[in-house]
Amino acid sequence: QVQLVESGGGLVQAGGSLRLSCAASGRTFSSVAMGWFRQAPGKERELVSAITLSGRNTYYADSVKGRFTISRDNTKNTMWLQMDSLKPEDTAVYYCAASSVAYIETMEGYYAKWGQGTQVTVSS
Questions:
Q1: Cβ count within 10 A of residue 75
Q2: Is 124 exposed, middle or buried (CB count within 10 Å of its CB: 0-12, 13-18, 19+)?
Q3: CA-to-CA distance for 70 and 72, rounded, in angstroms?
Q4: How confident is the model over 13-54, as pLDDT tens digits?
Q5: How confident is the model at residue 97 (pLDDT cuts 50, 70, 90)?
Q6: What radius of gyration do the chain's Cα atoms show?
Q7: How far is residue 59's CA from residue 57's CA, in Å, rounded to a whole number?
Q8: pLDDT band per the 50, 70, 90 thresholds, residue 66
């Protein structure tokens, strides 16, 4: 089984950058796709970005395209989300999630394991 721990959240001014990390334990990290979700107060959790097990294919929500970059290193069991040009509307709790399949799925139900979340707050 995979256990996930996020880090790197914090408070940043609009236009700034943060890099989130997701450290995974367990043998299945390198055999499944991974994703970053976020949930803002009063809103549903949404998929921000996802990456296949090989790292060759990625997905980005329209709201973050061109600003966020997802990556992973299977030798280190780690995934990252580089967030640049942050906006106040990016404020949310960000969750790392492990899919149950190797390819990218956008539906939350495909993600079997979740981290505890890390808070990202962007001030205007």
A1: 7
A2: exposed
A3: 7
A4: 999 999 999 999 877 777 899 999 999 999 999 999 999 999
A5: very high
A6: 13
A7: 7
A8: very high
